[in-house]
Structures are given as C-alpha cells and as structure tokens.
Amino acid sequence: MMTKFSWTKQWYPVTPIDYLDSSHPTPITLLGKRLVIWQDKQEKWIAMDDTCPHKLAQLSLGSIDKNGDLMCRHHGWCFDGTGKCTNIPMLSEEKALETACNSKRSQVQTYPTQVLQGLLWVWPDNSSTAVEDSILKQPAVMPEDKVDSSSIDWFMSEVPYSYTVSIESSFDPSHAQFLHEGISGFSPERAIPIQCFKVFGEISAEDGFTLKNSGYNVFNKDMDATRKFSPPCSNTTIYEFYNGKSALFLLYFVPTKPGYCKHIGRFIFDAAPQKRNLWFELLPKYLQTGLKHLSSYKLSDQDISMLDFRPISELTDNKTWQKSYFMPSLADVGIVTFRKWLDEFAGGKPEWQGIKETPFLELNDEQLYDRWHRHTKHCPSCRQSLILIDKIKDFCQNFTAVLAILALFLIAINLSVKIILLPVLLSILSLICSYKLDSIRQGFLTSIPKTGLPVVKLY
C-alpha cells in the first residue's frame, strides 16, 4: 500500500551549531517558510516564524533582551521560547498588557528543535500534534559509533539550484570524471563504465531507498559504494575499497525556497594522515578554516555552472522528466530511482509553505558565482577571516604611506641612498602585501576575478 510522504512532518538539519551565534537571532528559510533561530535563557535553541504579530517586522533583525527573550527591533515587543508575548513597551496599564500578551493574536508560532551530531534540526509542522509527532520520529543521522562528531567540521552552503537537481547530482557519481576534470585526479580519460548500479531492498515513502554501485574510474574500479537516501534530504554514501580503506560522505540537501537548496556536508576518509604544514598551523584556527573553504570553491562553481541551466531547460521544454531525459546507461539508475521516489510518494517536488512557485529567472554571473550569500555570511570562520584580512590590509596601506613619507623626508635631508632604500623597499613589500590580501578578500565574496576579464575559470 502506497503511503503519502508529508514534507512538513519531518526533521530537517538547518545549520551546523558552529554557524550560530547564541547572542543574536539568525534568519533561515525552510520549505519557503521564513524562520528565526535563537537561544533562550535555558540555552535551548528556538525556531519560530520570523514575523512579529504587531506589524509583521522580521524578528531576526531584533535582539535577545536581558530576560533571555527575543525582542523585536521595530517596537520592542518581546517573546519567550514558547512564542508567547512577554512585553509590549507601549502598553503601560497592567491589565491591558496582560490581556494583550495572553491573546492568541500576539503569539508567534514555534517549531520543535533538537541538536544531534553538531546540527540543529527543525520540525517545520505547525499542527496541534507537532510536538508529539516529532518525538516519534528520529532525524536521519549516522550511528554514533560510525561518526566522530568532533573530528570533522560541517560545511554549509546555499546554492542557486533546486533541491531536486541537488539530490539528483548526488546520485550521479559518473559526472565527476567530466564536470570536475582537473580536481582530485578526475579526468575523462580515467572514466570507466559503471558495471553494477541497482536498488537494494524496497523503496518506501518514509525509509527512502538504498543503492549499490561499482566504480566509475580507473582508481576506484574495484570499489563498492552504498548510497542510502533517507527522506526528506539525506544521502549517506559509503565507499569501500579493495585495500580495506573506506570513505564516508554525509550529505544533506535542505529545500529552502524554489530554485535554491542548502547543502550541508561532511566527508570522512580512512586514509593516511597528510603531511603537516607547520607554517599553516601557526595561523588562527578560523583563518585556517576560511582558507580551506576558499580552496573548495572551484568544484562548487563547476556544479553551479552546469546545474543552474537545468531548470531553464525543463521550463522551456515543458515536458516531464521521463520525456526530457534520455537515460540509456546503467550509470543513470540513481537519478531514475530518486525521481521515481519523488513522483510516487512526494508529489514530484517539495511542498512549499505559504509561497507560490514563480517562473525560474536566469541569473547573471555576478548572482550565480556570488560567494558571500552562498556561504561566507553564514560561516563564522570565513567572516572572521574577512575581518582579519581587512585589518591587516588597512595596516599595510597605512604603513606604506608612512614609509613613503619617511623616504621623502630622508631624501630631503640628503641622507645616503642605502638608508633611503630601506623604507622604499619596505613600502613596496607592504604595497604588494596589501594587493595580495585584497585578492584573497575578493575570494570570500565572489568567484569573479578582481582584475582582467570578469570570466570565471572553471577548468
């Protein structure tokens, strides 16, 4: 008997806990619903509608008051962790204040939350049984004995292509040899046909499906891969190699709004430890993380360049995926299986809450390759890296100016060339340093180069 999948009666990971600031509210979007995340005085993470019932202002623009309640920035209305209004500053009469605060119209809708494996999970259902329903179901996490939650950081990015396209791509391993040529040894010349790709067990609305496939390049041809889709948004993949080594990919694809999807991932490799870079380890931890994030953008830029075009093609053709796609290869089993699950159990696409799906708009390169909105503004390590870079860059610019003035002064008093040469050389080095830092800073904001043609080099 076929069971209808409910998009709202599910646990979704909305952000790594490390990305949140307990002293400030954070806005998020889930299934088209705008929410605010904040921590109350009991240190519990609260998820509620990001709308003040007074004049519909964004609560995420507010602050946490001295009582540990969320205060609206517009008129100072305050709300506790249950969504109950606790104060209306413009009501001085006690009886009127009590009546207004007890009114259902002053209540803000809240949603169940929990923290597991370093992620904040939200249950976006607003029915009267939401709390009871959420207790009966556990999020799609790995068993604790298989994951060391403290060893590997989560990475989060919101990309400008859809939930459906995102998950399809994660079940399409063969694309890596072609789309990601030049990264991690991927190359069309090293591609081999997948010899085995099949569904293992049953497909169901709540439990999703499991796939097993063989290798797809000369390096992993003897590999066995197991891919488990746990609705609504988890793809856990385990690669097991002939030499006993393994790799674990924990991926979540969270539908935020039409045409956009939040990717949260962690990769754990059973391999020999890499050679330590002692100079790199001298940098602040947040800067190490920020620079590592910078190095990963080329791969995601390649994905964006290819996958952003897909929704345009689908709308232009106005066909079902079965008629639009031609899939004669065994390598396409993963895509077909996910699409069948989506059609048979989940209505063919996410069920957006409170918004209408509008026609897809083509993005220009500045929007498509924007890194600030995709990742940096969410990531505390990258934001701190930007602040540090700006401080050092400003220092270098001021230091250059001081050295230039000093050199002119030394020339004016007719000192020897050797003495004058020192501040001149130092000013040149400081200027070069400022220029290099400006280029690094640009990398945290966009993939479009600062100089030359504004063309993103994907290969």
UniProtKB/TrEMBL annotation:
UniProt superkingdom: Bacteria
Keywords, in A-Z order: 2Fe-2S, Iron, Iron-sulfur, Membrane, Metal-binding, Oxidoreductase, Transit peptide, Transmembrane, Transmembrane helix
Location(s) in or outside the cell: Membrane
GO cellular component entries: cytoplasm; membrane
Domain Rieske, first and last residues per copy: 11-122
Transmembrane regions listed in the UniProt entry: 395-413
InterPro entries: Cholesterol_7-desaturase, PaO, Rieske_2Fe-2S, Rieske_2Fe-2S_sf
PANTHER family assigned: CHOLESTEROL 7-DESATURASE NVD, IRON-SULFUR DOMAIN CONTAINING PROTEIN
Record-given protein name: (2Fe-2S)-binding protein
Organism the protein comes from: Okeania hirsuta
Lineage: Bacteria, Bacillati, Cyanobacteriota, Cyanophyceae, Oscillatoriophycideae
